[in-house]
Amino acid sequence: MVMRSLKTSSKMTTDFIIPIFKNIPNISMLQTTRKGGISLNNYHSLNLSMDVNDNPDHVLQNIKSLERFCPKIQWINQVHGSNVIELPCTNMSPADAVFTKKIKTVCAIRTADCLPILLTNKKGSFVAAIHAGWRGLGLGVIENTIRSINSDSEIFAWLGPSIGVEKFVVSHDVYDFFEKNDPDVLDSFTKYQDKYKLCLPTAAKNKLINIGVKKIFGSTVDDDFCTYNDKERFFSYRREKITGRMASLIWINN
User: Is 124 helix (H, G, I), strand (E, B) or coil?
Assistant: First the structure.
């Protein structure tokens, strides 16, 4: 996995994280940060969501700026569930994962603490984007996505910025939810006072490995991809409540 930053030469300088899967040249990926847009105050500056009470004109301009670097995006309505949509799609029901086998068709999800996961395979014959919050993970959004795709070659996964384990304190209800629905990832929890800390990347990696995905890159437990800690680069709902959303995107070029 190679990763680099991209700065445009336009009036708006946009800092992107550009993951690259080696030896899969027809796949492009892009992870936005909070930098490079025109939104103000808590949404400063590249907020990409219309659902957080930001100025709609600012959001539209931000999206237009983003789409200079990728094909036009068909956004999904994320609901912290496990539904999966295949693109192209004319009837966009709520979903938290999207995949396609068509070229120049962007799979994109938006986050501000939840874990974004981008997928392709060794042949570069599909791409997928998963919005993996704790509830979606427990409900099986990763497994549903991979089963829906039915890849004919080895799958590669990239895990993007999310809230770090030290900042993600959850209640007994969350632990009980996993104990009931997905006990295989209980080692992603650590006891903290009368609650727990949950490591989303560890939980996701466990689930990916359990379903046969071995090539996993990106976020780790101790890296600098914590959305809560890095206020300069990332939006964080837990840190600010009123805030913007970043995007994780992947598409097939040819």
Answer: coil
